[in-house]
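[audit] Reproducing an earlier prediction to check determinism. Same input, same settings, fresh worker. If the tokens differ from the archived copy the diff job will pick it up downstream; this log only records the rerun itself.
[audit] input (213 residues):
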Amino acid sequence: RILERYGSERNVEEMKRFGIVSKAKILGVPKPVLRKIAREIGVNHELALKLWETNIHEARILASLIADPKRVDEDLMEKWVRDFDNWDICDQCVFNFFWRTSLAYRKAVEWSQRSEEFVRRAGFVLMAKLAMSDKRANDSVFKNFLPYLLEGARDNRKYVVKAVSWALRRIGRRSPRLREKVLKLVEEIEKIGTGNTRYIARETIRELTKQKK
């Protein structure tokens, strides 16, 4: 009832313009409102599980904000990721929740090789988020992601392509050593010769060479 109170049909239409459509019901609740509600609730894993089952887009995002990463298991991650049908729920779950779990690195690799568009995107977004936020990780962990990113670059689906580009740029920004490895990899990606691979190469080179200067 709280979520319905803050929903807006105008927001729902605006979300459609950005490709946020779903089999789940979308209420059009703004993200700042969801974060405020999450802060008021705090961590509540049982409630998160119930919210996910409502089949409401914003309830699922709220679930990702209040779920307890220490209580997650592989079955839960697989159950949630199978429900992803747009980039918004995918990215919100990864950024709010999945990257904090003990399974994050393994799932990043596994999901990056799956065929479902938003499962595969989740794998690459996990790589990007881990590169951004896991300050204790060794460079070698991210070096191991590079072959999967090379393979992902061959995917012709927009939301996968954008996630591959994002992950490459974030990995390249972690250290000078990784920057050089990423720049070398995007030379191979560019040679594949599709519009998508040229986009990935162009965006990555632009950001990483700008950072170097």
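[audit] rerun output stored. Observation attached for the diff report: The mean pLDDT is 96.
[audit] end
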